[in-house]
């Protein structure tokens, strides 16, 4: 029985998606006979993150939590950085304490905080373990692309740390071909070190899940077409494309619902009010049950990825949409991985600009049967390719190969 030590700042029951995925992976490892120990921080992803004990065992997983000194939330970068530092120091101490009393075969880290992979590589070298690194985002690249001002000397040092981390790693698991390309071509990581394993729906939606009363609450009729955008409303997401198209569609029964938050949300709300766009609605982040109900009430889901980010991350909500049997419209560069996926499995449509988006919505409004057909293919694709059990098996294969 192989013993696995997992380190990541966020972990169940915290709200961060990386921590939720990490917990699912750990549960899968235990199911397949691995011994799993987790070092994580006290729940801190948001100010409302639930408290948790310093140690507990959940379904065979031993979970050690290190104190972050009461730091919670991510809105203030200084608070976030303080949490990062406290976690890295605490995790290093706790890992040494554990590794000095028992042996492990593999150490596995994700990417929260950004330098946790470096910590994993140091521990792997010191205690002679195999190291698996799972970056769901590629740093510092994604921070630079999203507007973080990082001094050049710090970026240079960060890349040196990355180089060491990649060198020590026995395997690096990424989400897409584009991310693998970034590591191999830009970071000079040997191709045979990098494995692509996609995500799964979080949550996975059962087709028998009840719908929401959201249509009634927002006065959206059952025969009106409802398009859902759920996710980040940040500066790099060209959401104006949706609003400008919505304005042109003001007089036909098509509605657009935005769920989420981000620095651009305020300007989007102002644009809707100023231009009198009446078929657009905004809601804050929803709990899982409510979100699933709203998703089931929608007809089509929208995914946007900026060209500058397409090889650094992958929009994970896509898999939840597919699990619900909802076709996806992607607004993205034609060579983005998500565009290739939608084309390969014929489970949606891809457009690159406002004109194409507007014409597509107009076409779908006139022919609803296309939506039903693509929706069936979306669900079939999820069941055959992206279901959680199938993805977990890919992780098992990687660990068994070491």
Overall description:
GO terms for molecular function: glycosyltransferase activity. This is Glycosyltransferase WbuB. By secondary structure, the protein is α/β, with parallel strands linked by helices. It folds into 2 domains: 3-200 and 387-400, 3-Layer(aba) Sandwich (Rossmann fold); 214-386, Glycogen Phosphorylase B (Rossmann fold, 3-Layer(aba) Sandwich). It is 44% helix and 17% strand. It is built from 15 helices and 14 strands. It has helices at residues 17-31, 77-99, 116-127, 141-145, 152-168, 177-186, 214-217, 240-248, 265-274, 288-297, 317-323, 337-345, 354-366, 369-386, 388-400; strands at 3-7, 35-41, 55-58, 61-66, 106-109, 130-133, 171-174, 194-196, 225-232, 254-261, 280-283, 300-304, 328-331, 348-351. The strands form 2 sheets. An 8-stranded mixed sheet has the order 3-4-2-1-5-6-7-8, sandwiched between helices. It is globular. The mean pLDDT is 93.
Largest sheet: 8 strands, mixed
Proportion of residues in helical segments: 40-55%
Q: How many strand units?
A: 14
Which fold name is given in CATH as the topology of the largest domain?
Rossmann fold
Give me the number of helical elements.
15
Can you tell me the CATH architecture of the largest domain? 3-Layer(aba) Sandwich
Structural class: alpha/beta
Question: For the CA atoms, what is the radius of gyration?
Answer: 22 Å
Query: Would you identify the regions where 5 or more consecutive residues have pLDDT less than 50?
Result: none
Tell me, rounded to a whole number, the average pLDDT.
93
Q: Strand-residue fraction?
A: 15-25%
Order of helices and strands: EHEEEHEHEHHEHEHEHEHEHEHEHEHHH
